[in-house]
Amino acid sequence: MDGRAGFRFYGAENIIKKELRRNPTPMLYVTYGNLFELQSDMEKADKQYDKAIQSVSKRRSEVTQLAHAFIRATKYDLAVKVFEKGGDLLKDDKVFALNLGDLYKRKGDTKNMIKYYLIAVENIPEQAESIKGRLSRELSTEGMDTLQQALYEKIQETPDIIEFPEMLLWVFTQQKEYKRALRQAKALDLRLDEDGGRVFNIANIAATFIIIFRIPDCLNNPTKKPNEKSAGTVNIPKIAMIIAPEMGLDELAAVIAKKYTNPQGKSPFKIPKKKKLPKL
């Protein structure tokens, strides 16, 4: 470095050293590390960053402040260490689970992202909906398979947390695995002593999917064309009843038929016999 730059460096270093002797804080160590990093001395910089992590207290605000300082500098591995250290100090390995999930998302580490997001749900079940939103934006088909497997494990480990089987139902729906979704919905309905609303909701989702992706089969066959009450409106239950069995969704057809059964036990819809439809 030239003379003027060296003078500024040593002047700044002396000020930081003086403050560290008087009141050593994690953020001061980070500042000292930044100073070395500006001089491209990463070995000394890393030593100061490590001191920052080691000096953090068990105050959540201090842990979060230090981790965010590393996040702003895109030093995600160091931020992970901070949150892990904070969990150790607080003797609570779940307290920063959501933060760790977000960090692993930034790092592109799907497996650990899912791991910590599910720990966050275990810690605060009310977070399940917001975490599903995070996951839906991030996960590919392969990622959804990883989430599905992780949920099976969580359901075994923590059977009392209802949010995990509910998330599994959501995964089946996202993957358009409606047969499995219906079975899961029925299991939840029995467990929670519900009135079948959850089951019929899945049936409606599946029926809508059928309308969008399978309606050409129906419209190309006049005998299967649904009634239309008005332009652009189709009879979703009727068309679903027609096509569902052809997709192997016999349970969906049965749910729809039951939903529309009148007090006399009669339904306007009959479950048709299977007839192979051409693939789209």
Mind explaining what this structure looks like?
The chain is built from 14 helices and no strands. Helix 2 (26-38) packs antiparallel against helix 3 (42-55). 70% of the residues lie in helices and 0% in strands.
Report on the biggest sheet.
Answer: none
Number of strands: 0
Structural class: mainly alpha
Proportion of strand residues: under 5%
Q: Span from first to last CA? A: 69 Å
Roughly how many Å is the radius of gyration? 29 Å
| H/E element order | HHHHHHHHHHHHHH
Low-confidence stretches: 222-234, 274-280
> What share of residues is helical?
over 70%
Mean pLDDT rating: 81
Based on CA inertia axes, which overall geometry fits?
elongated
Q: Total number of helical segments? A: 14
Topology:
Blueprint: H1 3-22, H2 26-38, H3 42-55, H4 60-72, H5 76-90, H6 97-107, H7 110-123, H8 128-138, H9 141-157, H10 163-174, H11 178-192, H12 197-219, H13 236-243, H14 250-259
Helix pairs in contact: 1-2, 2-3, 3-5, 4-5, 5-6, 6-7, 7-9, 9-10, 10-11, 11-12, 12-13, 12-14, 13-14
List key phrases describing it.
single chain, 280 residues, mainly alpha, 0% strand, disordered C terminus
In short:
The chain has helices at 3-22, 26-38, 42-55, 60-72, 76-90, 97-107, 110-123, 128-138, 141-157, 163-174, 178-192, 197-219, 236-243, 250-259. With 280 residues, it is mainly alpha-helical.
